Every structure is written in C-alpha cells, then in structure tokens.
UniProtKB/TrEMBL annotation:
Organism: Psittacicella hinzii
Main function: Attaches a formyl group to the free amino group of methionyl-tRNA(fMet). The formyl group appears to play a dual role in the initiator identity of N-formylmethionyl-tRNA by promoting its recognition by IF2 and preventing the misappropriation of this tRNA by the elongation apparatus.
Residues binding (6S)-5,6,7,8-tetrahydrofolate, per UniProt: 114-117
SUPFAM superfamilies from the UniProt entry: FMT C-terminal domain-like, Formyltransferase
Name of the protein: Methionyl-tRNA formyltransferase
C-alpha cells in the first residue's frame, strides 16, 4: 500500500459524485475538485451546483470552475500550481490538456464504464442500454492525450440485466466501482506498472465507436424504429430526455412515455391476452384490416387500447405497448388514469410523432 495520496478530482455528472465520496472517506486526501460551472435551471431560474461541488463544499474542499475549456492555458495553469500526486477524472465533461494529465507524480487516471476500446466518449452507459448490449465493463485507465484511449489499469465485466435502465446501471457501476477505485489508489505504482494497452479496434471507421453527448432529440419518438428499439431508448434515456412524442395538436408540447413494452407483432399481443384469458379487454378499432397484420394502419398510429394499455404500430409491424405517460406539467399517470381524466386525448386512430 502506498502512502496516502494528494488527489485532485475532476468530475461533473452525478455519477462522478459517487466516486468522490469514497475517496474522501479513504486514507487519501482530496486537495481540490474541478467541476463544470454552475447552471441556472428550473422555473425559478435557481443556480444549481453540480453534485460534485455540493460534496466538496460540504467537506470544505477547494473547488475550481472555469467558464471556458480547461484546455485553455490560463485555466489549467492555475491547477499546475497545486500540490497533488494524482488526478482522478470521472465524467468531467471536457478533454484535458496533456500538460495537466502528465503533471502529477502518478499522472492521471480515468473511470470509464464500457467495453473499451468500444464505447469511448460521453455516453457509454446510455449507449449500452440503447444498443441492447448484454454486457459492459467497469474500467480504470491511465489517461493520455486522446479520448479514452489509455492503457487499462483495471477491468471488470458487468452484466446488463434484461430490463436495465441507465439509472440502475449507473447505480450498479457506482456500487461496484467505488471500492475498486480506492483499491487502485492504494497501490497505484503496481497498477501503473502492470497497465495493459487496449485491444486494437476491429472496425473500418474508428469514430463510430465513440458515444456522443446526449441531446434532447435522442429521446424523440420515431415510429420508423422498431418497438424494441423504442423501448430500449426509454430505458436508456430515463430520466432525461426520456422517450417523448408531440402532444396531439400542440406540437410545442411533449408527452413523455413513462412505461412501455415491445411486441414483435400484433399476433404476439393477442396471444398474450389469450393466455391471460383477457382477450375481451382488448378494444381494436372497428376496422377488420387492423386485426389482420395491421394493414392500412400508419406507423405511429394507436391501433388498439385496453383498460391499461395503448398499442402503437411501429416499424416491421412491431407493437409498442404504452402503460404510463406524463403530460406537460403533470405527474406520471397510468393509462387508466389518463382515460379517466382525458378520455379523448390518446385514442385509437391518433398518430404519435
């Protein structure tokens, strides 16, 4: 075990905060925290600190925030004046300059949750869920001048559950990764000495292996995708931006899908109701073609409803079963509550987009 390290921590996302806390509780000393600027959010336009900053302030740890990129010399040179042994980076939100990365005695390490070299970049967890991957990894890497390409100090496979959400996967990775990070810091010379290069990329276009920063448009409902793809998008992008479609006749407002399930086709939906002995609860539009392979229905159309669900036609004749939604300014509600309060809002024949 090494002597206690003086740690400079850089992180912004809530995920980052779950790694700052165990370092503070360890033998090591956090001499400073670097995080992105506070944001103004909410209807009250209140200034919102990052969770990382909140924890630092609570523990009287100096906080460093810069309005422009940390790559600007006038910013990172302020950090070079500090006395620290290692820089720990977790979801900071900016590319660091090599001069800062190489400055401390034990250089800089980064926590990254993906099957490196795949899933580099800003949104590896969300992309894992959206892609339907069954496995990811918790990695700690030695940082270099390019994004998420450094040698691997620690790797552990992580199974992705069938109905995993980004929230649950982040929580799983945090619970697993906190103790691992301390283990690596406790014996950092050994881990650095045994670091292994990442496997070579076996793809023609390496840039396609990078995940991008999530934008609101990522959660836009698109019936030209299969129901399974849309169901994965919901799990990937909850709590933000979620999966949403335009409020009928009010395009400037959105309705969020809160719960949904995917079926390969309409026959699968009918079979499910038959197995439960509840086929009479399924109300299909008075159009025989909709009961036969959905001919004549448009993509995005609500083709059926039950007391608890809406059924939407998606690509390849797949069906998205929606069981809960959230209207603008309202709390999430199940379909029964929607039907009681807004009986004509989302009914068979309405097209979602």
């Amino acid at each position: 075990m090494t002597q206690p390290l003086k740690v400079l921590f850089a992180g912004t996302a809530d995920f980052s905060a779950t790694f700052l806390t165990p370092i503070i509780a360890s033998q090591h000393q956090v001499i400073g925290v670097v995080t992105q600027p506070d944001k103004v959010s909410g209807r009250g336009k209140k200034v919102q600190m990052t969770k990382v900053k909140e924890i630092a302030v609570e523990h009287n740890i100096p906080v460093y925030q810069f309005e422009s990129s940390l790559r600007h010399p006038e910013n990172y040179q302020q950090l070079l004046k500090l006395d620290f042994d290692i820089l720990v980076v977790v979801a900071f939100g900016d590319i660091l300059p090599l001069e800062l990365i190489d400055f401390p005695k034990y250089k800089s390490i980064n926590v990254h949750p993906s099957l490196l070299p795949y899933g580099r970049g800003a949104s590896p967890v969300q992309t894992t869920i959206a892609n339907g991957d069954e496995k990811t990894a918790f990695c700690i890497i030695k940082m270099d001048e390019t994004l998420d390409t450094g040698d691997i100090l620690y790797w552990q496979d992580v199974e992705v559950a069938a109905k995993e959400t980004s929230e649950s996967l982040f929580a799983k990775l945090s619970a697993l990764g906190g103790p691992i990070l301390i283990k690596v810091l406790d014996d950092i010379p050994t881990y650095l000495a045994n670091a292994q290069p990442q496997a070579p990329l076996n793809v023609a276009e390496p840039k396609k292996t990078y995940t991008r920063k999530i934008k609101k448009t990522a959660g836009k409902f698109n019936p030209e995708l299969t129901a399974l793809t849309l169901e994965r998008k919901l799990r990937a992008y909850t709590p933000w931006p979620g999966l949403y479609f335009a409020y009928p006749e009010k395009d400037e407002q959105d309705i969020k899908v809160i719960e949904c399930n995917a079926y390969a086709n309409w026959q699968s939906v009918v079979a499910t109701y038959e197995q439960k002995g509840q086929l009479n609860r399924l109300q299909v539009r008075a159009n025989a073609s909709l009961r036969q392979a959905n001919l004549g229905a448009e993509l995005g159309m609500i083709i059926a409803q039950s007391s608890k669900h809406l059924y939407v036609l998606c690509a390849d004749d797949s069906i998205l079963e929606i069981s809960a939604v959230q209207l603008p300014g309202k709390k999430p509600m199940d379909i029964k509550s929607l039907r009681n309060g807004y009986p004509q809002l989302l009914v068979p024949g309405v097209i979602l987009n």
